[in-house]
Amino acid sequence: MRRRSSNIVAFSCMFFILALQAILPISSASLQYGFYDYDYKCKRTNVELLVRGVVAKAIRKDPGVGAGLIRMYFHDCFVRGCDASVLLDPTTANPTPEKTSGANFPSLRGFEVIDQAKAKLERRCPGVVSCADIVAFAARDAALFLGRISYPIPSGRLDGRVSLQSEVLQNLPAPFFSLSQNEAFFANKGMSPEEMVTLSGAHSIGRSHCSSFTNRLYPTEDPTIDRSFAGILKGVCPQNAAVDGVVPQDIVTPNRLSNQYYKNVKAHKVLFTTDQNLMSSSDTAAMVKENARNQTAWKAKFAAAMVKMGNLVELTGPPGEIRKNCRVVN
Ligand code: HEM
């Protein structure tokens, strides 16, 4: 009899926990959907909607900023986890933060959008919303406005106090990498080759500086690049140019986050060695072809991979903090 009643208690507890999880889905790394909905100080502010408004305005003015925000999220999360370490400005104590790495400077953009959202949030509910979460929300919103890709993302990340230029190239793949090097860098973050292929679709928006791909044009042209496409690129990016020009990643639909990227890969009209190398193994080539064929399926995979990238969280308590200003530690 006693065993039966304890079974009932155990079953009821389990049911209660499952029901609670259904209402408040808990993601890994103790992130939570709607994390700020339950914050007492922020109860009059819809935090995620506020960020969305700031991002919408910025993208209306310049869609390129949306591309910058999606890239910023990737560059933040792959180095020390999603902790806004990429946002920290140089100081006398730390003259070379991540921002000063060649992978980020001068190409990374969108910092002002994060500053604007943060300033608004600090006025409404000071000291509550982390810069790392603002970056994650902003990237999610950019995907919505540029790609009609919509997904909820859990939050509750903390901001880091450490940001080192020296860690950037150890963690972010370079555009001249082989397929296996690229896969290894993603695997290092727990991301599969399929997720790597899926996320590379972000190269359907935004721009690149010539210096990121001229190794494919000079001194000899990469045989895997379409010849007429290479000709166009050479026009914008002459050899030994004094100024580092910029070109759109996708000349077909430069501001639309879409599966056009995979069509470009198939047509050999992509900028980086890493992009074209997706065709260099039968496994990844099959993924490229499938994504080129099925935009709806690719969008769903993209959303899932973006959420997964956001679970790269290393800080779950002190010294993690909520910065007052995203560019400096408290
Ligand atoms: C697979 C390995 C990757 C490599 C080697 C790579 C490399 C690069 C490089 C070199 C640029 C051009 C920077 C410049 O010269 O201006 C760029 C731009 C960009 N990347 Fe990636 N990337 C990779 C993956 C990703 C991922 C996973 C995302 C996001 C999900 C992403 C999003 C973007 C976006 C949106 C741009 C355009 C940025 C802008 O217009 O400001 N990339 N990437």
UniProtKB/TrEMBL annotation:
GO cellular component: extracellular region
Bridged cysteine pairs (disulfide): 42-125, 77-82, 131-326, 210-237
Family to which the UniProt record says this protein belongs: Belongs to the peroxidase family. Ascorbate peroxidase subfamily. Belongs to the peroxidase family. Classical plant (class III) peroxidase subfamily.
Annotated site location: Transition state stabilizer: 71
Enzyme class: oxidoreductase
Organism of derivation: Ananas comosus
Positions annotated to bind heme b: 203
Function statement: Removal of H(2)O(2), oxidation of toxic reductants, biosynthesis and degradation of lignin, suberization, auxin catabolism, response to environmental stresses such as wounding, pathogen attack and oxidative stress.
Protein name: Peroxidase
Amino-acid positions noted as binding Ca(2+) 2 in the UniProt annotation, renumbered to this chain: 250, 253
Leader sequence segment: 1-29
GO molecular function, one term: metal ion binding
Cellular compartment(s): Secreted
EC number, UniProt record: 1.11.1.7
